[in-house]
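Async update (no meeting this week)

Hi team, since we skipped the sync, here's where things stand on the single-chain job. The sequence we agreed to prioritize is pasted below, unchanged from the tracker. I ran it this morning and attached the output directly underneath so nobody has to dig for it. Comments welcome in thread, and please keep replies under the output.
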Amino acid sequence: MAFERIAVVGAGAWGTALANVAARAGRSVTLAARDEAGARGVAQSRMSPRLPGITIDDKVVIVPAGAPALRAQDAILLAVPAQALRAAALRLAPQLAERIPVIACAKGIERGTHRFMTEIIADCIPTALPGILSGPSFAAEVAQHRPTAITLAAHDETIAAALARALGSATFRPYHSVDVRGVEIGGAAKNVLAIASGIVTGRGLGASAAAALTTRGFAELFRFGKAFGAQPETLTGLSGLGDLILSCSSRQSRNFSLGIALGEGASPAQAGAGMLAEGVFTAAALVDMADQNAVDMPIATAVAAILDGRISVDAAIERLLTRPLKAEG
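Output:
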C-alpha cells in the first residue's frame, strides 16, 4: 500500500501537473505520452505543449503509452479526456498487473453509453481497482505549487487513503472517500452548469443572476446525485459544491469560458473552436440520465438544448425565468 511507483497516462496539462505532484511527493513517476513522437518531444523539452512555462520534474521518466515500464507500476493515474478514456483504458489493459488501482482523472459521462469514468475502467480492465480523482483544481495552479485540495475516491477505503498519502504534499491535499459515484457526479455535472454560468456572465445578466444560477445549479446537481446514491457530504464537499464554485467563477474554466462566448453571441461551433470543454460532451448524457430517473434539471436541460442548436440563448433564459414559482428545494 506504499504506492511508490506511479504512472500518469496522458501528457497534457492535467497529466503533466499530476506527474509533478507525484514526484514532489517523493514517488517514482512515469509519464506516458500518447505515442513515441509525443514522448520524444516532451522528453527533450521537459515541457508539455498543453502547459507552457511549466518544467517537468527531472525525476519523471517520460515514455510512450504502451511502453513496458507501465507493467511495473503500483498505481495508474489515467489523465486523458473523458471521451478518450475508453480507448486509453483498452490500450492499457494488456499491460497491467491484476488488482492495480487505475484512477480516472477526468470529469464527465461517456456519450452514447452513459457510463461514468470508473465504469469504463471496469469494462475495459476487469482486474483493475477503479477510482476517481476530482475536485476544484486548475492544472496550471497545481503545477505552480499553489494550494489545492481535491477528493480521491475508491471503493476500498484502505486503497483510497494510501493513494491520498502517496500523492499528498504541502500544496496538494487529497481527501479520501469511498463515495466513488458521488465524486464522479460532482465532476461531470459541474461542467455542464459552468457553461450555464458562463452564459449568464457573457450575457451581462449581473452578479445576482450569477449567484442564483450557481445556487439553483447546485440544487440540480444534488438532486441528480441523490437519485444515483451519492452521499450528501460528497455533493456538498470539494468534488461537488467546491468544484462547482470554482468552475462557475473563473475564466480558467474552459466550460465557463465557452459559456461566456455563447452568452456573447457565438454559435456552439464558434464557442467550442479549439477548446476541449468536457461539459459539451456530457450535457446530453446528463440530461438523458436525469430524464430517465425523473430528476428535474431545467438549467442542464437548457444548456443541452443550446449546445444542440434546438433553442437560442435568449429563449432558454426566458424559459427559465418564466418557470412557475414554487417553494425552494
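Quick observations from my side:
Residues 180-202 form the longest helix (23 residues).
The radius of gyration is 19 Å.
Reply here if anything looks off.
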